[in-house]
Design brief:
The structure holds two protein chains of two kinds. By secondary structure, chain A is of the alpha/beta class. Chain A has helices at residues 3-19, 22-26, 31-41, 61-67, 79-88, 123-136, 171-180, and strands at residues 49-53, 71-76, 93-96, 109-115, 137-148, 152-159, 162-168, 183-193, 203-212. Chain A starts with a helix and ends with a strand. In chain B, 44% of the residues are buried. The chains are: A alpha/beta, B alpha+beta. Chains A and B meet through strand 6 and strand 8 of A and strand 16 and helix 11 of B.
């Protein structure tokens, strides 16, 4: 990784360190995320290895999966978020790491979730990120993704008092991207969402439940 | 012919009594009471019916009303002699005869050459007839009563005019809004002469937002009502420009300064956004709104008090608060909570205590407040506006950020088609796509930051396009040879309404489509 990239990722992480708990206050309703978690649990054996990319505070997904009997690993760029997650879900393992640095040789997963995580990457890194996720999954492994529907490529957006660089696709473009990365889409759910904060705009969230082909 | 000190003392005392009231019936009663028993044993006062009904023309009136009699039930219908005295304008004294035992005297009640009625005095048969001094004294008292009656008439007429003006300038019903239920009450002061300058309003703003207004022009009477009308219209005009609440009040203040005389008014202006679930509030010296939560808890909103409209030179401040679906917003004027001689905090405490009952309907809530707080001798008028904030469900809103590109119009058509399809509005989608394309094509040309597209489904479909270019589009007539300029014509022709306003970061252009 180049120094520029590291610096950029540090800035994104620092923004989330600042946001901390306010993230869950601004986005209190997580029905979409919980529904995707339930969809996944219905397909996993007890003890399944699950990776939660961009785990945030560990709530509700980390705790839902732990309660569902999974062996959960969460990663996040933000040290602050990892610390919150360890407090919220002590049964899971949380590591401050960049998805692009993960090595499949360290172990593969039965399922990967990336809820509102990949939207922090520029489009030119998206292919690589999906490649890493693909490689981290066992064949036939499950992949749950959520993104915000938009047409943005690494655009700075004011978010909860900080500034975050955000990328978004329209649903048909996202579908094509995911399929070309070697995933089959089993379910697609768009959902309008109004944050409980004046510092975040309402958005259309896209939930894709996929399987590694 | 000798007048005595006793006569003068009587005259002086009676004049004071008769002039004490500004009420027609009281003045008539005082006149009748004054002449009995010294001048007569029975007295009846007749006044023109038109005096009691300012909508009738006084100059043409002839019909009389028996306004007072002493003893109370001794009156009779006006006899021809009454009319004769009124026509001639001179007193008529009749001596006792067989038909009417006892001497009688009819004295017209007149003021500035106009006859307003007459007083009939009757003596018992054992008393002598009316002499010249009796007639002069009675004429003097009737003249005093005439002044009082006429003043009372003018006073009532002004009160009626002020009341009519006040009512004609208040909304009789408020429009309906998506995400809001509301109701209102307006009560004039119990003493109708003290018509106040209270007003209230609910105004539709772009983006399905609503402005709630309650204001109070200080002072009473015709001029307060007239100023109120001007301020209410000004607030509506400023609201239509979609200015932030503090700026609405600032412009209103500028305007009030320009109205000439120094008028002061308090006003609170609240903008409710049912999508963001947020109220933005600015205050000009008015009572702050009360927000009642679904569990019955309520809070007096912490809004900078500001200074009344008309003071000038002091900045207003907008504050933003988040509201939850099911919250109830209560706005009122001080007439509701201010009880003479009591601190306003006592009235406010009573108001808040009576908002604590959850589940009351809007109308029931208003009735409770008016019953508890609006005692019958209230000196001031009352305006009350109560709104239930329901919000617009997230599922009826779609919002996207899109970087401005050549391909953006095609992208937004896909977004609109998919969303309207999911809303069961595929049939309307073509028009929405067409008009949105016009707006987005324009936005893409000038925007440097991502543009925003928002669709909102209520009883109509609202489509908004925001960008970071501040210049507002202007609807102009495109010549046959012009390449551009047709977009807005199309929007104007095919939409139910459209508009454009500045935002903090640029502008928003919107149109509304019937669905």
């Amino acid at each position: 990784m180049t120094d520029d990239w590291t610096e950029r990722e540090d800035r994104q992480a620092a923004a989330y360190d600042t946001i901390g708990d306010r993230y869950d206050e601004a986005f209190p309703h997580k029905e979409g995320q919980l529904a995707a978690g339930s969809w996944l649990l219905a397909r996993l054996q007890p003890g399944a290895r699950v990776l939660d990319v961009g785990c945030g505070t560990g709530v509700p997904t980390g705790s839902q999966l732990v309660a569902g009997g999974c062996d959960v690993t969460g990663i996040d760029l933000s040290a602050g978020m990892c610390a919150l997650a360890r407090t919220n879900v002590p049964e899971a393992r949380f590591v401050q790491a960049d998805l692009l640095d993960l090595d499949p040789a360290d172990g593969r997963y039965d399922a990967v979730l990336a809820f509102f995580a990949l939207l922090h990457l520029p489009k030119d890194r998206m292919g690589a990120a999906l490649g890493v996720l693909h490689a981290l999954l066992v064949p036939g492994g499950w992949f749950c993704l959520s993104m915000v529907e938009a047409d943005l490529d690494d655009v700075p957006i004011p978010f909860l008092g900080s500034e975050i660089r955000v990328t978004g696709y329209l649903r048909d473009e996202l579908r094509a991207l995911i399929e070309s990365a070697g995933f089959g889409i089993e379910e697609e759910t768009p959902m309008s969402y109004a944050p409980a904060s004046t510092q975040a705009t309402p958005e259309v969230q896209l939930f894709l439940n996929c399987r590694r082909t | 012919m000798n007048t005595t000190v006793g006569d003068l003392r009587f005259l002086n005392q009676a004049t004071v009594t008769i002039g004490a009231s500004l009420d027609l019936a009281e003045t008539a009663a005082a006149l009748a009471a004054a002449v009995v028993p010294r001048l007569a044993d029975r007295a009846t006062v007749y006044l023109l019916e038109a005096l009691f009904d300012p909508e009738l023309t006084l100059a043409l009136a002839t019909e009389l009303r028996q306004a007072a009699s002493v003893p109370a039930d001794s009156g009779s219908r006006p006899s021809p002699v009454i009319h004769r005295a009124m026509e001639s304008g001179e007193p008529i004294a009749l001596s006792s005869d067989e038909a009417v035992p006892g001497a009688s005297l009819v004295v017209p009640i007149r003021v500035r050459g106009r006859i307003l009625g007459a007083i009939l005095l009757i003596r018992s048969p054992d008393r002598s007839g009316f002499d010249e001094i009796d007639v002069l004294m009675c004429t003097q008292l009737a003249a005093q009563a005439g002044l009082g009656v006429h003043n009372a008439y003018l006073y009532e007429a002004e009160a009626l005019a002020a009341d009519t003006l006040q009512r004609s300038m208040l909304p009789t019903h408020l429009p309906r809004f998506a995400g809001v239920d509301l109701t209102h009450r307006y009560l004039p002061a119990s003493d109708t002469v003290r018509v106040g300058g209270d007003w209230f309003d609910a105004i539709a703003l772009p983006g399905s937002r609503v402005a709630f207004v309650v204001g109070d022009v200080m002072g009473h009477g015709l001029s307060s009502a007239a100023i109120m009308g001007q301020l209410r219209t000004a607030v509506q005009t400023l609201a239509a420009l979609d200015l932030p609440p503090d700026q609405v009040l600032r412009h209103l203040d500028d305007l009030a300064q320009g109205l000439g005389d120094t008028y002061l008014a308090t006003c609170v202006y609240v903008v409710y956004d049912p999508v963001a679930r947020r109220c933005t509030i600015a205050n000009a010296g008015h009572l702050p709104p009360v927000l009642v939560h679904a569990d019955g808890q309520n809070e007096l909103l912490q809004v900078p008090e500001g200074v009344p409209i008309g003071v000038g030179g002091i900045a207003f401040e907008s504050v933003e608060i988040s509201v939850a679906d099911g919250d109830r917003l209560v706005l009122c004027t001080d007439g509701l909570v201010e009880v003479r001689g009591e601190d306003i905090t006592a009235g406010l405490a009573t108001l808040r205590a009576n908002l604590a009952v959850p589940g009351l309907s809007l109308d029931a809530q208003c009735e409770v407040l008016l019953r508890v707080l609006h005692c019958s001798e209230r000196q001031d008028d009352v305006a009350l506006l109560v709104a239930d904030l329901h919000g617009i469900p997230a599922g009826d809103v779609a919002h996207w950020l899109l970087e401005p590109r050549r391909t953006t119009p095609a992208r937004i058509r896909r977004l609109i088609r998919a969303t309207m399809g999911a809303w069961g509005l595929s049939a309307e989608s073509d028009v929405t796509e067409l008009l949105a394309t016009e707006l987005v094509t324009n936005a893409v040309r000038y925007a440097t930051r991502p543009i925003e597209l928002r669709l909102l489904r209520t009883d109509a479909l609202l489509c908004e396009v925001s960008d970071d270019e501040f210049r507002l589009p202007i609807l102009r007539h495109a010549a046959d040879t012009d390449e551009g300029g047709r977009g807005l014509q199309l929007v104007s022709r095919l939409s139910r309404r459209w508009g454009a306003s500045r935002t903090t970061s640029g502008k928003v252009v919107w149109f509304e489509q019937t669905i």
